[in-house]
Amino acid sequence: MGSIDKAVDRAAERGYTTFQIFTSNPRQWSQRELVAEETEDFIKKVISNDMKPVFAHIPYLPNLASPKDEVYNKSCEVLISELRRCSRLEIPYLVTHIGSHLGVGMRTGFARITKAIDKAFNIVDECVMLLLENTAGTRNSMGSSFEDISCITRALTYPERVGICFDTSHAFAAGYDLRTQESVEETIQKLDETIGFRKLKLIHLNDSKGSLNSRIDHHEHIGMGEIGEEGFRNVLKSKLGQLPLILETPKDDRRSDSENIEKVRKLAGEI
What we know:
Layout: H1 6-13, E1 20-21, H2 36-48, E2 55-57, H3 69-89, E3 93-97, H4 106-123, E4 129-133, H5 146-155, E5 162-167, H6 168-173, H7 181-194, E6 200-204, E7 207-208, E8 219-220, H8 228-236, E9 245-246, H9 257-267
Parallel strand pairs: 1-2, 2-3, 3-4, 4-5, 5-6, 6-9
Antiparallel strand pairs: 7-8
Helix pairs in contact: 3-4, 4-5
């Protein structure tokens, strides 16, 4: 993946004010050691380009809810390692998928997740906040509802060290309507009542290929999916639009990353 400080260069070249990275290969269990020089360069470049805050995302393979001991133990190790890597890079937030219970049930899944996070927090210092990302509600997945996420945070020994990453595509697929001003405000109110809006630190801004409550986890280009342009206008003019926004839109020839960002700025009324 190259020297990690190059990520700051690419973000600055494109005019970004924040960005999200993987600190290691997202499709492998093994992690390349961070080199002191690239770590120092990363920190210096983030400061000099006034990139704040920066976010990291845990790799795809870990499953903190897994009932399989080998996978679960490796997942815990990756979580601890990623928290440490973020600390070294002075990245304040680490986003994690909550995981899948693989059919053993929500109660067991919740217990595995809270045990994994508590273990990591007991080992790693508190300079990095872990952000739990809501899911689309696919089969056996954990964390598709605000109530599920609240259940996890309330069971933790250090709930103040956990925040929320809200993915618009996942939320819509899980049944949270984001198409009208009224439904956006209702969703925000539900989030505030169950989790607390202050815990929300990041928005993953993605349209959804699946319809409302479809439980289909497929991202779409901004305005080209079921949420639509009007939906994103309403999201962006709400309190959600005041938070850091990261796009995870498809990689295809219909629209580039830069064009998606331009679309967001137009819908927000910036251009």
